[in-house]
Amino acid sequence: MVKMPKIERKLRNLRKLVKESRLEFQGEGGDRIVFALDDKRVIKIPLHQWGIHMNEKELSLYQEDESGRFAEILDVKRPFGILCLIQERVQVMWTPYDDFDADEVPSMPYWACELLDGEQVGVAACGDIKVYDYACE
């Protein structure tokens, strides 16, 4: 029998725990999965080693951000030692490659069109437009 690396076992246990929870699924990318904790917060959970790296990168970018355009990271949790981010929840208005009716959503700010990973922005509770996925920026 091939022994599973320690980090993979921890990620598997974390995924199992989340699956058994009653958290509201928000979305999934290639590296992370997102659940709503409540009306104001989401948790970003890595799916594998690269997802952990994405959370580390996003936390670092948030801490260095002076523009106020990144959704706020409210807390950091480490279930099973795995870095998970608690982020302010935004109302997603645009996602990359969306075909949307411009009359139904507010105008996307010019700076959002210059994001490296697509226009992953939404409206925060305060009314500001914020980037909710910025690990690749």
Note down, in words, how this protein is organized:
This protein is 23% helix and 26% strand. The chain is an alpha+beta fold and 137 residues long. The strands form two sheets. Strands 1-2-3-5-4 form a five-stranded antiparallel sheet. A three-stranded antiparallel sheet has the order 6-7-8, with no helix packed on it. The protein is globular.
Alpha-beta classification: alpha+beta
How far is it from the N-terminal to the C-terminal residue, by CA? 41 Å
Global outline: globular
Rg is 16 Å
Distinct helical segment count: 2
Strand content: 25-35%
| Strand order within the widest beta sheet | 1-2-3-5-4
Report the order of strands and helices. HEEEHEEEEE
Residue share in helix: 10-25%
Number of strand elements? 8
Overall residue-averaged pLDDT value: 84
The major pleated sheet works out as:
5 strands, antiparallel
Residue ranges: pLDDT <50 for 5 or more in a row?
A: none
